[in-house]
Specification:
SH3 type barrels, five-stranded antiparallel sheet, two-stranded antiparallel sheet, elongated
Protein backbone atom coordinates (compact mmCIF):
# COMPACT_ATOMS: atom_id res chain seq x y z
CA UNK A 1 0.00 0.00 0.00
CA UNK A 2 1.45 3.35 -1.03
CA UNK A 3 1.39 6.30 1.35
CA UNK A 4 1.38 10.04 0.78
CA UNK A 5 2.52 11.39 4.17
CA UNK A 6 1.87 11.16 7.88
CA UNK A 7 -1.40 11.74 9.75
CA UNK A 8 -0.36 12.08 13.38
CA UNK A 9 1.67 8.94 14.08
CA UNK A 10 0.18 6.93 11.23
CA UNK A 11 1.03 6.99 7.58
CA UNK A 12 -1.64 8.54 5.37
CA UNK A 13 -3.20 6.08 2.89
CA UNK A 14 -3.36 7.13 -0.76
CA UNK A 15 -7.16 7.04 -0.84
CA UNK A 16 -7.47 9.21 2.31
CA UNK A 17 -10.73 11.15 1.95
CA UNK A 18 -9.50 14.41 3.48
CA UNK A 19 -5.93 14.39 2.12
CA UNK A 20 -6.25 17.78 0.35
CA UNK A 21 -7.68 19.47 3.48
CA UNK A 22 -4.94 17.95 5.63
CA UNK A 23 -2.15 19.02 3.27
CA UNK A 24 -3.38 22.65 3.30
CA UNK A 25 -2.42 22.79 6.99
CA UNK A 26 -3.85 24.88 9.74
CA UNK A 27 -5.68 28.02 8.54
CA UNK A 28 -3.85 31.27 9.19
CA UNK A 29 -5.66 34.56 9.70
CA UNK A 30 -4.38 38.08 9.63
CA UNK A 31 -4.41 40.04 12.88
CA UNK A 32 -7.58 42.03 12.07
CA UNK A 33 -9.25 39.46 9.85
CA UNK A 34 -13.09 39.56 10.13
CA UNK A 35 -13.22 35.83 10.88
CA UNK A 36 -10.63 36.14 13.67
CA UNK A 37 -12.47 39.09 15.19
CA UNK A 38 -15.78 37.25 15.10
CA UNK A 39 -14.29 33.92 16.30
CA UNK A 40 -11.30 34.59 18.60
CA UNK A 41 -9.25 31.53 19.53
CA UNK A 42 -10.14 29.89 22.86
CA UNK A 43 -7.35 29.87 25.47
CA UNK A 44 -5.93 26.39 26.02
CA UNK A 45 -6.90 26.52 29.72
CA UNK A 46 -10.61 26.59 28.77
CA UNK A 47 -10.57 23.77 26.21
CA UNK A 48 -11.82 21.24 28.77
CA UNK A 49 -14.83 23.48 29.41
CA UNK A 50 -16.27 22.35 26.07
CA UNK A 51 -16.84 18.84 27.42
CA UNK A 52 -17.87 19.65 31.01
CA UNK A 53 -21.69 19.79 30.48
CA UNK A 54 -21.70 16.24 29.17
CA UNK A 55 -22.97 13.81 31.82
CA UNK A 56 -23.34 10.30 30.45
CA UNK A 57 -25.10 8.99 33.56
CA UNK A 58 -27.54 11.57 34.90
CA UNK A 59 -27.33 11.77 38.70
CA UNK A 60 -24.39 9.35 38.97
CA UNK A 61 -21.98 11.88 40.51
CA UNK A 62 -24.64 12.89 43.09
CA UNK A 63 -25.29 9.24 43.94
CA UNK A 64 -21.58 8.60 44.48
CA UNK A 65 -21.25 11.74 46.61
CA UNK A 66 -24.23 10.71 48.76
CA UNK A 67 -22.45 7.45 49.65
CA UNK A 68 -19.56 9.43 51.14
CA UNK A 69 -21.78 10.94 53.85
CA UNK A 70 -21.15 9.42 57.28
CA UNK A 71 -24.33 8.57 59.17
CA UNK A 72 -24.60 7.78 62.90
CA UNK A 73 -27.17 6.29 65.24
CA UNK A 74 -29.45 8.73 67.07
CA UNK A 75 -28.21 9.35 70.61
CA UNK A 76 -30.84 8.59 73.24
CA UNK A 77 -30.75 11.04 76.16
CA UNK A 78 -30.86 9.71 79.71
CA UNK A 79 -33.37 11.04 82.26
CA UNK A 80 -31.09 13.78 83.63
CA UNK A 81 -30.26 15.06 80.15
CA UNK A 82 -33.97 15.05 79.21
CA UNK A 83 -34.80 16.98 82.39
CA UNK A 84 -32.05 19.55 81.66
CA UNK A 85 -33.20 19.92 78.04
CA UNK A 86 -36.81 20.30 79.23
CA UNK A 87 -35.75 23.05 81.66
CA UNK A 88 -33.94 24.89 78.85
CA UNK A 89 -37.00 24.63 76.61
CA UNK A 90 -39.19 25.98 79.45
CA UNK A 91 -36.83 28.95 79.87
CA UNK A 92 -36.97 29.60 76.13
CA UNK A 93 -40.76 29.26 76.13
CA UNK A 94 -41.08 31.79 78.97
CA UNK A 95 -38.77 34.27 77.21
CA UNK A 96 -40.56 33.97 73.84
CA UNK A 97 -44.19 33.15 74.70
CA UNK A 98 -45.50 35.70 72.16
CA UNK A 99 -44.05 37.36 69.06
CA UNK A 100 -43.49 40.77 70.67
CA UNK A 101 -41.62 39.22 73.59
CA UNK A 102 -39.50 37.06 71.25
CA UNK A 103 -38.49 40.13 69.21
CA UNK A 104 -37.69 42.24 72.28
CA UNK A 105 -35.68 39.54 74.11
CA UNK A 106 -33.80 38.41 70.96
CA UNK A 107 -32.71 35.11 72.50
CA UNK A 108 -29.84 33.74 70.40
CA UNK A 109 -29.07 30.04 70.79
CA UNK A 110 -27.18 27.21 69.18
CA UNK A 111 -29.02 23.90 68.71
CA UNK A 112 -27.48 20.53 67.92
CA UNK A 113 -30.15 18.26 66.45
CA UNK A 114 -30.61 14.97 64.61
CA UNK A 115 -31.58 14.83 60.91
CA UNK A 116 -32.55 11.34 59.68
CA UNK A 117 -31.12 9.97 56.42
CA UNK A 118 -33.45 10.73 53.49
CA UNK A 119 -31.50 8.85 50.80
CA UNK A 120 -33.66 5.83 49.92
CA UNK A 121 -30.67 4.12 48.26
CA UNK A 122 -28.54 4.29 51.42
CA UNK A 123 -28.25 1.46 53.93
CA UNK A 124 -28.78 4.11 56.63
CA UNK A 125 -32.25 5.13 55.40
CA UNK A 126 -34.69 5.09 58.30
CA UNK A 127 -32.17 3.90 60.88
CA UNK A 128 -29.35 6.47 61.00
CA UNK A 129 -28.80 10.14 60.29
CA UNK A 130 -26.55 13.12 60.96
CA UNK A 131 -26.23 15.68 63.72
CA UNK A 132 -26.33 19.29 62.55
CA UNK A 133 -25.74 22.48 64.47
CA UNK A 134 -27.78 25.60 63.83
CA UNK A 135 -27.55 29.07 65.32
CA UNK A 136 -30.33 31.62 65.37
CA UNK A 137 -32.90 33.64 67.25
CA UNK A 138 -35.73 31.77 69.01
CA UNK A 139 -39.08 32.79 67.56
CA UNK A 140 -41.23 30.44 69.61
CA UNK A 141 -41.29 27.20 71.54
CA UNK A 142 -44.50 25.41 70.58
CA UNK A 143 -45.58 23.00 73.34
CA UNK A 144 -49.21 22.65 72.28
CA UNK A 145 -49.50 20.07 69.53
CA UNK A 146 -46.33 19.95 67.43
CA UNK A 147 -43.67 20.07 70.19
CA UNK A 148 -41.29 22.09 68.03
CA UNK A 149 -38.70 24.81 68.41
CA UNK A 150 -38.86 27.59 65.77
CA UNK A 151 -35.55 29.32 64.99
CA UNK A 152 -34.98 32.33 62.77
CA UNK A 153 -31.64 31.88 60.99
CA UNK A 154 -29.86 33.81 58.25
CA UNK A 155 -31.42 31.53 55.63
CA UNK A 156 -34.97 31.57 57.03
CA UNK A 157 -37.19 29.95 59.64
CA UNK A 158 -36.43 26.38 60.76
CA UNK A 159 -38.69 24.08 62.80
CA UNK A 160 -36.96 21.45 64.95
CA UNK A 161 -38.84 18.66 66.75
CA UNK A 162 -38.13 18.30 70.48
CA UNK A 163 -37.31 14.60 70.07
CA UNK A 164 -34.47 15.43 67.65
CA UNK A 165 -32.71 18.01 69.87
CA UNK A 166 -29.47 16.81 71.46
CA UNK A 167 -28.35 20.01 73.15
CA UNK A 168 -29.11 23.72 73.35
CA UNK A 169 -26.50 26.33 74.27
CA UNK A 170 -26.65 30.10 74.56
CA UNK A 171 -23.88 32.68 74.69
CA UNK A 172 -26.23 35.00 76.65
CA UNK A 173 -26.01 32.74 79.74
CA UNK A 174 -29.80 32.58 80.08
CA UNK A 175 -29.65 28.93 81.17
CA UNK A 176 -27.19 29.68 84.01
CA UNK A 177 -29.70 31.93 85.81
CA UNK A 178 -31.86 30.29 88.47
CA UNK A 179 -35.22 31.60 87.24
CA UNK A 180 -37.25 30.28 90.19
CA UNK A 181 -35.33 32.48 92.64
CA UNK A 182 -35.72 35.60 90.47
CA UNK A 183 -39.53 35.44 90.29
CA UNK A 184 -41.29 38.33 92.13
Amino acid sequence: MMTAGMVGYMQMPLNFKYKDVFLKGRPEHERWDSFLIKHPPMPAAKWAKIFSPFDALKGFSEAVASKEIQYVQKIELDDDEKRDLGRKLDVLHNLTWNGRMARSNRVMISVKYFVPCTDRDSFSFGTKGQYKELQGMVLRVDTDVELTLALQTETGKVLIAFDDILEITSCQEIFDTDWELEAP
